[in-house]
Amino acid sequence: MEEDLVSDPPTPVVDAPQRVLIVDDSRLQRKILCSSVKRWGFDVYEAGSGEEAMVIAEEIQPDLVLSDWMMPGMNGLEFCDAFRKLSGERYGYFILLTSKSEKNEVAMGLEAGADDFVTKPVDANELRARIAAGERILRMQRELTDKNRLITETLDELQRVYDSLDNDLLEAKKLQQSLIRERHKSFDTGDVSLMLRSSGHVGGDLVGFFPAGEGHLGLYSIDVSGHGISSALMTARLAGYLSAAAPDQNVALHREPDGTYGFLPPEEVIETLNDLVLDEMETEHYFTLLLADVNLETGHVRMAQAGHPHPAVQRKNGDIEQTGPGGFPVGLMSGISFQQFETTLRPGDRLLLLSDGVTECPDINGDMLQESGLETLMTDLRDVSGPAFFEALLWKMTEFSGGDQFPDDVSGILFEFRG
Question: Which residue has the higher pLDDT, 143 or 316?
Answer without folding.
Answer: 316
